[in-house]
Amino acid sequence: MIWFTRRTVEGQERPRRRVGCLGGCLIFFAVYFLCSAILGWIMGDMFSSGSVTLKDKTVYRLELKGTLVEQAQEDNPFAGLMGSVPYYSNYADGETVGLDDVLSNIRLAKNDDKILGIWLDGAELSVQPANAKVIRDALLDFKQSGKWVIASAKDYSQVNYYIASVADRICLDPTGAVNWNGLAAQRMYYTRLLEKVGVEMQILKVGTFKSAVEPFFRTSMSDADRKQTEEYLGGIWDEFKSAVSASRHLSVADLDALADRYMGLQEAEEQVKAGLVDTIVYAQDMDSLLRVYAGTKDYNLLTTSKLALVKRPESKAKDKVAVVYLEGEITDETGDGIVGKDVVKMLKKIRKDKDVKALVLRVNSPGGSANASEQIWHAVQNIKADSIPVVVSMGDCAASGGYYISCGADYIFAEPTTITGSIGIFGTIPNLSKIRDKVGLDIDGVGTNKHSELGDNLTMKGMNNDERALLQAMIERGYDLFTRRCAEGRHVEQDYIKSIGEGRVWLGNKGVEIGIVDKLGNIDDAIAKAVELAGLENYKLSYYPEVKDPYEELLKMFDKTTDEERLIMKVREFASKPRIMARMEEVVIK
Fold first, then answer.
1. Which of 273, 352, 431, 495 is deepest in the core (most CB within 10 A)?
2. Does 172 lie in the same domain as 82?
3. What's residue 437's pLDDT?
4. What DSSP letter does each residue of 437-501 carry, written as one string?
């Protein structure tokens, strides 16, 4: 404790004010923040000019590592101060890479004669297939300029090799390998574990293929889930093989045969013999190879973050095309992804801006809260009501709630391997009555009406048949609303949406066939379509949300909550109220 004292008339000291541990900590952190802010300002002023001048004989070093996010974030000057990583990153070293920066840099590299070529350095980028294709296509377009691309890594993951396969030369470390093994998707099932601890998950859902809840009441894949998973995995694998075949001049049959050999366990020389790589090179010797390709030993290297600071020509046009990035799980009030109330507020701001003539939504989300999805859908419809065209560009995933917020657009683009659809609704409510019995906890009470205690009884006693019927009816109303929104947006009958819905997952190319997507394309295609629909000639792009303030992010770095504690908090939230979710299960393609 910290004590402040005052002296009495008699000369004795008496306690005047007591500041507890919390108060002492607050004083410490206030001083710490002030010093850190001053230090950050000084260091920023000393070492950062805010822009980079592009020099002759430059090579763009595109490092394939970290976690790919849709929109680049401002570098946090305090990122290493507390020995922690940014809260939004799931990558070990905390580094995130903005897809927007990567694409902008590749375009600059193509069109500026000061840039000689691109070096793909490493192959550890955490990226899913659809956005990997976006980068790969940008590199193929870059090569149309006649400039070179080389790649090097110790080991190549499959999705990173898919990107690197466009290179004119692929280099591999002598101890490395290409993990070309075929795709797999597995899920963990918790039913038997929950039974052992005495928890029953009460499931309410609409959709035969809505498999997000299966881990809580099954011990293996349902036939429906197995069917849809096999279909989209096969579609992604076909894309990988087709693209690599064209770039590496290997037949699809040969690529399947190599996968069956599990090339990730083969020696580097075998990778060369198989035609997956061209050259075995130590990482420390890449400079010599770069000199050959650059035609000089005096080349300059610029990484993604540095090249992004090179000034681009700014449009003086008054008319704007608003580009809104919506990435992550959809929540109502708080979260690190798509927070419903914040998105609605942002869309209202865009609507009030009379210079905005078109809106592009870049959606990368597996869904989440059905209520938040409906609120965002309504905000988008309000913008359309002002005769502002809305175009959606889907990223890796725009499924369930992610499709809900997309379906009302005037036009929808997706990548061939975008995961979309999953039009379905579910609710999950844990029944803790068995745990209560085990620990000897009894509950009793009174209510004025038949279902007055329903909210508490659902988790502590479990639902009865009448309660289940009431809740299932609510879920079905949610599904009816969801399918109605899709039918209105796609200009088809609701019965048709229900026939292709049922929670079923589709790839983007299949989405075009069944009508839930208009065309295959990337975010540039979506912007071009928005410009066309708005009839614009001169315009500038305005991006949302605004980049996060690193000083505000500093506060979040003091959150020392462990993964286990976060899980417990999620379970408590889960148990506190029944949730209606429009969400797809999380699947990571490896």
1. 431
2. yes
3. 86
4. HHHT-------SSTTTTHHHHHHHT---HHHHHHHHHHHHHHHHHHHHHHHHHHTS-HHHHHHH-
Which distant-in-sequence residues (6+ apart) come within 8 Å of 27 by Cβ?
Answer: 19
Q: Which of 80, 60, 180 is nearest to 120 (CA)?
A: 60
Has residue 571 been placed in a domain? no
Maximum alpha-carbon separation in the chain? 98
Query: Quick one: 37 and 175 in the same domain?
Result: no
What would the DSSP string read from start to end of 76-93?
Answer: -TTTTTTT---TT--STT
Contacts of 492 (CB under 8 A, 6+ apart): 515
Using the 3D structure, point to which of 246, 273, 307 is the last residue of a domain: 307
- Residue 154 sits in which domain range? 58-181+262-307
- CA distance linking residue 373 with residue 375, whole number of Å: 5
31 CB contacts (<8 Å, ≥6 apart)? Answer: none
d(CA 464, CA 237): 46
User: Is 473 domain-assigned?
Assistant: no
pLDDT at residue 95, rounded to an integer: 86
**Number of structural domains found in the chain:** 2
List residues bridging with 3 in a β-sheet. 18
* Contact present, 516 and 501 (Cβ < 8 Å): no
Q: For 194-231, how does the pLDDT look when each residue is reduced to its tens digit (9 = 90+)?
A: 988 889 899 888 888 888 889 999 999 999 999 999 99
> Are 62 and 42 contained in the same domain?
no
Nearest one of 64, 232, 229 to 132, comparing CA atoms: 64
440 occurs within a structural domain: no
Answer for the pair 367, 376: CB distance below 8 angstroms, yes or no: no
Task: Check residue 40 and give its pLDDT.
Answer: 47
Q: Which residues pair with 65 in a beta bridge?
A: 124
Same domain for 31 and 73, yes or no, is no
Q: Which residue type does 13 have?
A: E
- Tell me the average confidence (pLDDT) per consecutive run of 10 residues in the chain, 590 residues long: 37 42 49 49 43 93 96 58 36 74 97 97 96 98 98 97 98 97 92 90 87 90 94 96 97 97 96 97 95 95 94 91 96 89 97 97 95 97 97 97 97 97 90 87 87 84 90 92 96 96 95 98 97 96 78 49 50 48 56
The catalytic site residues sit at: 210, 400
On whether both 165 and 266 belong to a single domain, the answer is yes
Structural domain contains residue 69? yes
Q: Are residues 158 and 303 in the same domain?
A: yes
Q: Report how far Cα 461 is from the mean position of its chain's Cα atoms.
A: 37
For the entire predicted model, the pTM comes to 0.83
Query: Are residues 155 and 85 both part of a single domain?
Result: yes
Q: In 10 A of CB 51, how many CB atoms?
A: 8
Residue 114 and residue 33 share a domain = no
DSSP symbols for 384-425: HHTT--EEEEEEEEEETHHHHTTTTSSEEEE-TT-EEE---E
How far, in Å, are 17, 405, 585 from residue 338 at the CA level? 45, 11, 17
Q: What is the pLDDT of residue 445?
A: 87
Distance between CA 138 and CA 143 in Å, rounded?
Answer: 9
| Assigned token pair, 105 | 């840099």
Q: Among 254, 281, 307, where does a domain finish? A: 307
Q: What is the CATH number of the domain that holds 292?
A: 3.90.226.10
- Give dist(CA 125, CA 127) in Å, integer: 6
